[in-house]
Amino acid sequence: MDIKVPELQGMMGKATISAIYVNEGDAVVRDQTLFDVDFDKVVLEVVATTAGVVHSFSAKQGDLAISEQVVMQLREKVAGEQTTSEQ
After folding, report:
1. 3-state helix, strand, coil in the chain (%, to 5)
2. Cα separation of 37 and 46, whole Å?
3. 26, 55, 67, 69: which could join 73 in a potential S-S bond, CB 3.0 to 4.6 Å?
C-alpha cells in the first residue's frame, strides 16, 4: 500500500518532511503516526490507514515533497515474521 503526502493547496504543492517516526521493517498499527509534513506553517500528521510493515521509505527528514508524492510503502505482515520493532 502506498503512503502519500497529503494533497497540498498553495505553496505550489510543496512541503518538508519534518519528522519520521518509523523505520523500514517496523510493524505499524492502523492510525499510527508515520511521519509529519510541514506545510505553510502547518504540520500535518500522516498516519497508517491499515496495519502492516514499513516496506520502503523514499524520503528522509528535511526532504522536500510534493502533493500526493508516494514516500512510503506498507506491506502485510507475514505470519510468524519478526519485525525490527519486535526485536
Report:
1. 5, 45, 45
2. 7
3. 55
SS3 state of residue 80: coil
Q: Please name the amino acid found at residue 56.
A: S
Task: State how far the alpha carbon of 59 is from the alpha carbons of 36, 41, 74, in Å.
Answer: 12, 20, 14
Give every strand in the sheet of 70-75, ordered side by side: 2-4, 70-75, 52-57, 27-28
- Give the N- to C-terminal CA distance of the chain in Å, as an integer: 24
For residue 32, give Cα distances in angstroms to 13, 22, 57, 87. Answer: 24, 10, 16, 19
The model's pTM is 0.84
How far is Cα 25 from Cα 63, in angstroms, rounded to an integer?
A: 21
pLDDT in tens, 18-31: 999 999 999 999 99
Could you tell me if 33 and 19 are in contact, meaning their C-beta atoms sit under 8 angstroms apart? no
